[in-house]
Design brief:
six-stranded parallel sheet, homotetramer, seven-stranded mixed sheet, alpha/beta, 11 helices, 387 residues, 15 strands
Chain lengths: 387, 387, 387, 387
């Protein structure tokens, strides 16, 4: 463990006196649960930040005690997010020290620099950027163009997709350092669509053709995000290797190996053909996964794989017809539709989600809940908003 | 009172044995509040119905015990509203008898036939159609083309805009019969924008130019609601007298008289020029009110009128710049922007809301809360969903 | 040839006396070209019909002499298509007899019944439905659910994709009977994207993931086309075998065999995995073709294949970055983007078009031009409308 | 006349030797009309610029000989406007000298500096910005915040709304200096809606509530034009005095005085209450004009006023029901709907147009045609694109 990360000492100094949770037991609240967890959000002025505020403001076990954004000095939140003006919150430059957890919604590379100090103080880190998603430090220069400054943390960080890593997230309750690398929006919909096939060694060949609303690209006023360019149009982008490929390939392999399969069991999970498309809509991701299976499979067997995987999951719903992204808007739901095409012999699996909720803020809160021993659905029970 | 409406007898017969609330005291729950109110929704398959389900499902004091739709026989709700499939609810033909309250989202004329029997049994009625909004029975043939079958109920019914009729709604807690005519979507935004001026006798001349998303027109598959016709286009409709004019004129007069003004005090509130427009969007109403005041007024005086009227209201927010409908989506908020145009001498007041929430389902729940002595914001505290 | 189709006799009787073109030489106008061709449109009240009117109204060599729709009696066109009201046209039940060509935009099965008599009279038929697209009569019951009443015409009809069948279309200039089965919207974008690979025997495995605006589904007021359902959402449909698969597979095979390849040369062109998606937009098709090649190919070789195929085509543009559908709106352009993904070894080819122009009305006019010996671009030279 | 504007001398030097039109007779082409007019566009990279290129490329009497944009060096047009890539044009820093006419699409203040030299050389100027729209130089600091550097040109410039200033535009055929200030998008729809009332002295009180697609605000990547902010939302802007008020008031006065009325005849035309709104769409303006007439008027009289004004106009269509902006898209049409509301006694007049065509590029070409003695509809005959 690096010099910058010696949590036990830090915890001794800071934990007891601050009235915060004893760091070695995040999940047990000494006062019987009455105290709310104190959380902060860094990167509060973007779309993911606003969604974290929207959801955490209504979380029964949370107090938002700080919002931070670059060069902000107690600026009213309404100046960035008019729909949140009624919260009366402000955005400053830094978070208070005495917080239980921090959510980070920052450009790649920024969190890697901030996290070690905070994590060492025992603050649970839920990072919504890519800095703690990849296990192999070599993937950072390859996919993101920067050397990871703290590769030792990549071994500790947990990939925050609860449906695939719930036990590891739970283990953070007792860990002195808790770092969650919350998944990207595309990987969430794609991995949940594919995980049952990966575990069964069924992915012979794979094409992931994905569609996203513009909020996935953030809030920056880029010319290509101008309404005049986006509306009434679709186009592919990220041709030749969108960064989310790295997560998708990593986690398909992890998922297969978690049930004892070797990498060759899912040949289609290597060198994934992933092509994202920009949709003329604000929210929503649809991941259309075209799979040529490694062996023949019946429709019943396919359905059984998915129901077994997801029937006990609170947020993943296996549906019987092709889902629309609209039916997830504002909620933490993922709709998964597996289909065996008898004519072509292929398996089609479609995943639909709200990229800002299950694809970002909601998922992060779901992991946060697990890391703190809270009910996994706390603060995430609102239904989708449609039409 | 009509033969069909003799509540005391009904209450004696039905109240005690059913375990429901004593009808003469809706606001006090005998068991100290632990019991949830049993509610049903008639007209559950439309857009307003789905929004009632979405909100009431998360209301802490409510159990939805029945959904009704025409010719439905325990049909899964997901067949009508895929986003609500996870609730596991079904839609039948009728509601159970032992309910505390019924929400009705029906075409005009339909509720007027159903309500007397239900109301007489002590069921609190929250009608989201027009059948109990107008006080003068003659307005029904004029504006809606039907003779109201129970004009005597129009004297009892309360116009369910809490910001204007809170005391009357509260009085229903103890009333044997409780009927709320929940306001239309356009009148809500318009009346909240104009009420402070009406009370001050300032409306000299009035033009209401309103804009609505398509969900305000319901879910029927009409040719003019086809995506190909609506998208990338705006147009006016309802030229020459949209039905909501009746409510707007009635309530502007009521509001003025409630503070002792006579009808001539607001000459612009008579023969209101109201022109609605269809927007290429799903939700949202913007009501742009152009007022020529009866006397000169300063910007400070104008602001004071609005802050005095609304600063204590939980859902009405006076804002300092022109609001976007998007900043209310999914919430019960109304944003009101008053502005004195020094150049023209006019007052501009803009109201923005989500037509399905504060303009329909949310407002109905707000009134329901008052009628049952619940906190007015119960079940309505979610923040807007943006972007 | 069926009894209903004896063109020579008809032509003798009808041709000379009518002042129409001598049927055996559509391409030569006896008066030196001054006379405009007389055309009619059957199915004028739908979206394809309106687009035919828009384009043919401005075609320098055409007079629209008749518009027909079911149960129409000289109804002003503005009642169906307000944007065309200024043309002053009307829609009746039938076309005049003395026309040179008829465009048919009808539901499947309808044209097959009408065409034989008209074609026998020498009227050039440009059918925009599926009734004359497929060569194998057995495909009609399989894909469209009806027995083709005139299978003998399938041998005569020409698949109206000029870039693949220009010579056969030209041959109709001198043919007594001219029937063009104008391609479907999806097949046009897909086949133009894939034809160069098919000719090179490069299609080893194929996934076609396509996206369309709603106008491709016609104008009927179906619930799923309501603005409230379509806007802010994407979803797949036609899962398990959209009808356009039949055309795509047929023409990939035809294209390969046209250069002497046998069916096994493009194994991916058999049992094509085609999944269409509905976009929240009115016009535009994007066909994303994921190809695993039969052999390694360099990026230069790939580019050369496409430039060779299309550099002389007036409407197909090979582009260097992923195209947006918006950049074809209102024009007859198809943008084709071939890309070799070195990482995955796959070829990605994206085709973009306006489904109502190159995917329907424009393409039909292009074929009509060829069949009549007119410049192929006549009436089709307008540039796309953006933004 | 300023020193910078001595056209006769310039014309002597430049006209004959250049092969350009004799400046004193723009309308007569020495070679009998075979020569096309040479035009350039300054500000070619914005939305108005692209629309000028789209339309002028297909104009039968025009050759586009130069496109200019700031700091451009023969950059391919496709880099700015991918839909125009097939034209093969490039954008440079300057236009060639030997042009007949220049279209300028520039921010306010920029054209005023460029025009004098060009105009003095005899180049016909069609300025699409505000620099030559206002007659009173004092209006520039008031509404646009800059001192007009050449107020003397404001007397010469013609406001390029052909329906109101056709004779003055025609007079430019023989004028040594021709400067057209092409109207703004809102004023076009508004003035055409109101002109018949202004001429009749009927505008007693006026509220203009206008709605525009985002392309009216240009192409700059401003945060408020991000798709995430615009989609699914409407809002007012320019509260308290949008710059287009200046044009509207000026031209209503001019129109009234052109038939001998004095300013008091239309009291509502002074201090106009104009409130624009941003729509979630790309193109289209709807101007909803609420007029309280100075005297009672019958519906027949109202209709007669409009038909008399516009039945001979090629681009203005008086329609019988409320128009949708969509029915003008891509065309130079304006739809005008006058309506007498018997209930309120008001007149409602709605104008609909495509802001980039009749509201900008198309109107500019219409004026250009008149100034050069061409048929007024040349290059502008395409029909609207719908759906």
């Amino acid at each position: 463990m690096s010099a910058g990360l010696e949590p036990p000492a830090v915890i001794e100094a800071d934990g007891p006196s601050s009235g915060l949770l004893p760091r070695s037991r995040r999940g047990v609240q000494p006062d019987g649960g009455a105290r709310k967890l104190r959380v902060g959000i860094i990167g509060a002025t973007g779309y993911v930040g606003s969604e974290l505020i929207r959801l955490l403001s209504r979380h029964p076990n949370v107090d938002i005690v700080g919002l931070a954004g670059r060069d902000r000095h107690d600026d009213p939140i309404g100046g960035f997010h008019p729909h949140l003006a009624s919260t009366g919150m402000t955005v400053g430059t830094e978070l208070p020290d005495d917080i239980d957890a921090a959510f980070l919604a920052l450009p790649h590379g920024a969190a890697a620099a901030l996290v070690p100090e905070m994590a060492a103080r025992g603050v649970a880190i839920i990072d919504l950027g890519p800095d703690f998603r990849l296990r192999d430090a070599a993937d950072y220069p390859r996919w993101y163009g920067f050397q990871h400054p703290h590769p030792e943390l990549l071994d500790i960080a947990v990939y925050g997709l609860p449906e695939l890593h719930r036990d590891e997230l739970r283990a953070l309750i007792d860990a002195p350092v808790a770092i969650v690398g919350s998944p990207g929006c595309y990987p969430t919909a794609t991995l949940l669509a594919l995980a049952p096939l990966a575990r069964a060694g069924l992915i012979g060949d794979l094409v992931v053709d994905a569609k996203s609303g513009v909020s996935g690209a953030g809030r920056d006023a880029k010319p290509e995000m101008h309404f005049g360019e986006v509306d009434e149009s679709v186009r592919a982008y990220g041709i030749g290797g969108h960064r989310h490929v790295a997560e998708i390939e990593q986690e398909l392999a992890v998922t297969a190996s978690s049930v004892g399969l070797d990498p060759g069991a899912n040949p289609g999970a290597i060198g994934v053909d992933f092509v994202p498309h920009l949709m003329p809509m604000v929210r929503g991701i649809l991941s259309t996964n075209h799979v040529r299976p490694t062996r023949p499979i019946s429709a019943d067997e396919l359905a059984a794989l998915y129901h077994e995987a997801y029937d006990d999951e609170p947020f993943v719903h296996v549906v019987a017809s092709a889902p629309a992204t609209k039916h997830t808007t504002g909620s933490n739901h993922v709709l998964v539709f597996p289909y065996l095409d008898e004519r072509t012999g292929r398996i089609l699996v479609i995943g639909a989600e709200d990229n800002l909720v299950k694809g970002a803020a909601g998922q992060a809160i779901q992991a946060f809940n697990i890391v703190h021993g809270l009910p996994e659905t706390a603060g995430l029970q609102q239904l989708p908003l449609a039409p």
